[in-house]
Design a protein that fits this description.
With 150 residues, the chain is mainly beta. The protein has one domain: Immunoglobulin-like. The protein contains one helix and ten strands, in the order αββββββββββ. The longest helix has 22 residues. It binds copper (II) ion. The site of copper (II) ion has 5 residues, from β8.
Length: 150
């Protein structure tokens, strides 16, 4: 019995070893709670949220999803309008950067994902695939992340 267990352990260690060496040049990315808000009735835009942690510096080159025209990373800024009022403005982040081992947090009321031209009705609980194209050392590395409609 003991021997069998040990054999299995070695086998698992062997498998892990193989996996690590096969993915050493790929992304090391932790993805937490990817969600997209169900668009309001009659609207085809919405916001999305996720927490990402990469072990290396990564630039987001582009984000895409089937049946969605455009996906951007936005930041919120307080700005003075021409009549002196302070208003909240959304701005596109041109080159979103994930700093190594630092949480890149997209959440309500702060930096977020913006989905434009959503062509399908998204109902709560539905899952959609969103592809993140990262730029790492002048190479594009893609990662599919499944977002849940909330
Ligand atoms: Cu926005």
């Amino acid at each position: 019995m003991r021997l069998t267990t040990m054999k299995i352990n070695y086998w698992i260690i062997f498998l892990i070893g193989v996996t690590v060496s096969a993915t050493s040049s790929a992304l090391d990315l932790n993805v937490d709670s990817p969600t997209i808000k169900a668009p309001r009735p009659g609207q085809n835009i919405s916001a999305g949220f996720v927490k990402l942690i990469s072990t290396k510096d990564l630039l987001i080159d582009s984000i895409e999803s089937e049946n969605i025209s455009k996906i951007e990373v936005h930041t919120m800024k307080m700005e003075k309008s021409t009549n002196g009022e302070t208003i909240m403005r959304m701005r596109k982040i041109e080159k979103p950067l994930l700093k190594a081992n630092k949480a890149f947090i997209l959440q309500p009321g702060a930096d977020h994902l913006m989905f434009f031209g959503i062509q399908n009705t998204l109902s709560k609980g539905e899952k959609i695939k969103v592809t993140f194209n990262f730029l790492e050392k002048a190479q594009i590395v893609s990662k599919d992340i499944i977002f849940e409609v909330r």
